[in-house]
Amino acid sequence: MKNVRALAAQVLSAAEKKFVDEALEAQRGAALSRRDRALLTTLVYGATRWRRELDWLIDRCAERVHPEIRQHLRVALFQIRHLDKIPRHAAVNEAVELAKGVSRKSAGFVNAVLRKAADLELPDTIGVRTSHPEWLVERWRKRFSPQELQSILDADNSILPVTIRLKDGAMVAIEGDPTEDPRYAEGGFAVQDETSMKVAPLLDPKPSERVLDLCAAPGGKTTHLAELMGGKGRLVAVDLPDRIGLVAESATRMKLGNVECVAGDGATIAFRKPFDAILVDAPCSNTGVLARRPDVRWRLREKDIVGAVTIQRRLLENAAHLLAPGGRIVYSTCSLEPEENRVDLPGFRVVKEELTLPTERRSGGYQALARRE
């Protein structure tokens, strides 16, 4: 059986070049007990979430740190400063032993850094204390009150509950891996965040309508739309060729026969007949879901928001082209940024919109309903 802390350091190293959830998924075949797999997830997500704080502590105690050693230090410091059930000496000793696998001299180095860094006082810098990039903190500071800002930053560092959407639309929080629940394989529920569950009901699709989900993967909102239609009517789900299979798998698992999956680019795809209702759940900066996707805060750059807006605009314009007279569009993102959260289409009126801020129980996001006049 593999050492969980060693595996956590390996996953963190792999996550430098790919998304952290993908790096974790690559280790799914490792021979780990359910308890150890849960610990692995906690260590990886925790060290990723608190990376700025952890690196500040490490860099106060050492000028140059080998990349592999830094991962071991991050894992150990996260345990010491954020986990109550793991004794400090155990975290230190484990890291020292693992450092020996890098080089013999690294063991003493790791021991010295951890013993010093563990008790350091953090600076009075909100970005370090809440482990967020400075540019994002300053961006939010201009828009939100001090209380709202602190609430958002705290929410981003929360461990959100795993929520599922049952066939009757009810939301339930569950413990553990939802895919291990026998109801999952039977199609009894979809895993979906509370905020995400607001989107499909806003479109309010009818069984008699032609409905289009223009950015459908991974399929949570698609299956919600299909269920609201009673499994009837025609619901076309579109996404890129390498992603549309996720939607097909979800629809098949949940036994929803009214979903037709089409591979294509939502910004350019064309159909002969127009649609009565269209969902544009657009790719975005993801600044509203940093609790569930902690590595995004370190990958994202402010210029990426400009690029996202360009894609979102193209998607909305194509949706308007595909919509029938008198039809409606719901536009949604997982972003908190105002540039990304607006529907500005000629001939459309925004009927309802809502920005949901993240909390300790849900992610943030934006939803808007617009009708063609």
- Count of discrete domains: 3
Instruction: Please state the second-level CATH architecture of the largest domain.
Output: 3-Layer(aba) Sandwich
Instruction: Note poorly predicted spans.
Output: none
Percentage of residues in helical conformation: 40-55%
- The overall pLDDT average reads 96
Shape: globular
Q: State the name of the first-level CATH class of the largest domain.
A: Alpha Beta
The CATH topology of the largest domain is given as: Rossmann fold
- The helix/strand class is alpha/beta
The CATH homologous superfamily name of the largest domain equals: Vaccinia Virus protein VP39
Written as H for each helix and E for each strand, in order along the chain, the element string is: HHHHHHHHHHEEHEHEHEHEEHHEEE
Total DSSP E strands = 10
Strand percent estimate: 15-25%
Between the first and last Cα atoms, what is the distance in angstroms?
Answer: 63 Å
- CA gyration radius, whole angstroms: 23 Å
Structure write-up:
This protein is an alpha/beta fold and 373 residues long. The N and C termini lie far apart (63 Å). The protein has 3 domains: 4-122, N-utilizing Substance Protein B Homolog, Chain A; 128-157, no CATH class; 193-372, Rossmann fold (3-Layer(aba) Sandwich). The mean pLDDT is 96. 40% of the residues are buried. Helix 1 (4-14) crosses helix 3. It is globular. The longest helix has 21 residues, at 302-322. The chain is built from 16 helices and 10 strands.
